[in-house]
Design a protein that fits this description.
2 domains, 16-stranded mixed sheet, Jelly Rolls, SH3 type barrels, 4 helices, alpha+beta, 328 residues, 21 strands
Length: 328
């Protein structure tokens, strides 16, 4: 009888231990959406290098401090670094997230990235009061408060060259080559600093160059989706605590004015892959989590779906179901 009692106690203890381990595991695991810094756009192929391994990068993958993103040919990655800020990493680029501090409201406090090679486009908004965001290349350090700009870093014949172009706002730069270069680059200006000590004076960009950058900014900003659609925790709490107001039952049918919805971008009818490629200047193959594949061109995206024009018509694809997008 005593042995049965001891066995019963032992069994209960084992079950309690398993339950505690399970609860700890569940509570310590974060969902992808819990990471404010994550991939929200991916075309082609890219890899993420962590401290202990290198692996393929996918949609919605989290990016953590110390991670290095490397893009392949004809590829690009868009990373949300907060609810309102984003970095586009172009093809054949290497970017390291060296620091990332955010408030509970997703406001950037102190953050920095390093661009070893290639090109990035940055849209930066809503920094915390006194917050800083820095971009470091092999020749310059850019300090930003809130702006949109592009930086590229190239190497030719052992000479590294970094070029900064500012779309709006202002960016302060300092050189890393001992020439004590300190400049503030304003909207519509650019500057180039080379590793051999040559510094080109800041100058105004040509109208055509500026127009290309403005268009690029608009396309990158679309990846974030409408900022107002993402509610802060305290907003959700207010909504939950608010009393439900019961409207009197209407005796006759009434017309209810719905909030205006954004106009959907129209897509032309294209019957062949050649026509799609000629119209959009690209042809993409999207692999879904069920193993199926779609070929066409992605022409719009919000926070949840992408719209793709195929030979069978326009298809709306949930971002969560996309495994990979490859240029053909």
């Amino acid at each position: 009888m005593e042995n049965k009692s001891m066995a019963s106690v032992f069994g209960i203890a084992v079950r309690l231990c398993i339950a505690v381990i399970f609860l700890f595991t569940v509570s310590s695991c974060k969902k992808k959406e819990d990471y404010p810094i994550r991939v929200i756009g991916l075309v082609g192929e890219a890899k993420i290098q962590k401290a202990d391994r290198t692996m393929p990068l996918y949609y919605e993958d989290p990016v953590e401090t110390g991670d290095i993103i490397k893009t392949g040919s004809n590829s690009h990655v868009v990373v949300a670094i907060s609810q309102w800020s984003v970095i586009k990493i172009y093809e054949k680029s290497s970017v390291k997230l060296t620091r990332a501090e955010l408030t509970e409201k997703d406001e950037l406090i102190k953050s920095s990235v390093g661009l070893t090679e290639g090109k990035i486009f940055v849209i930066l908004k809503k920094l915390f009061r006194g917050g800083t965001f820095d971009v470091t290349t092999q020749t310059i350090v850019c300090s930003v408060r809130g702006t949109s700009f592009a930086i590229d870093s190239t190497a030719e014949k052992n000479v590294v060259k970094s070029t900064l172009r500012v779309v709006d706002g202002a960016v302060k730069i300092e050189d890393r080559i001992g020439k004590n270069v300190k400049e503030e680059i304003a909207t519509g200006e650019r500057i180039t600093v080379e590793s051999e000590g040559k510094v080109r004076k800041k100058e105004k960009m040509e109208k055509a160059e500026m127009e290309v950058l403005v268009k690029e900014k608009e396309e990158v900003a679309v990846k974030l989706g409408p900022a107002s659609s993402v509610k802060q925790p305290e907003e959700k709490k207010k909504e939950a605590d608010a009393p439900v107001k019961k409207e009197p039952q209407a005796k006759t049918e009434q017309k209810i004015d719905q909030p205006a919805q954004p106009a959907m971008e129209k897509a032309p009818v294209l019957k062949t892959e050649t026509q799609i490629k000629e119209y959009y200047h690209k042809l993409e193959e999207v692999t879904l989590d069920d193993g199926s594949r779609l070929i066409g061109a992605i022409f719009s995206q919000d926070s949840q779906n992408v719209r793709m024009n195929t030979t069978s018509g326009v298809v709306t694809i949930p971002i969560s179901s996309i495994v990979k997008v490859v240029m053909k």
